[in-house]
Amino acid sequence: MNSMSVRDRLRLWGKRLLFPGLDLHTRCRRLPNFFHKGAVSTLDAGCGNGALSYAAHQRGNSVLGVTMEADQVRKDSEYFSFLGADPDRLRFEILNLYDLPKLNMKFDQLICSETL
Q1: Which class is domain 36-111?
Q2: pTM for this one?
């Protein structure tokens, strides 16, 4: 992360100011209040920009966000690394929801918002 260019840092700071977006409905979500606190294993199925994954991470959860979009996984990983999220507790992977059994994992909590 230390080798990040000034341009990349400015872009990520700009994203931080506007995150999760300009849509007021998105900005005013209160869903994170429903997430369990503490050492909870959470799957964010169809994680999109990772906003809900990050909210669960901030409540102490270990989160895996999955999406079919490789570019989104790259963007989410880069952005949340920039914010200092613990990479052992907040991960993003490319995965079709139909392939969830391949993970061979169990989760205490599932986020599936605006996905299906």
Answers
A1: alpha beta
A2: 0.76
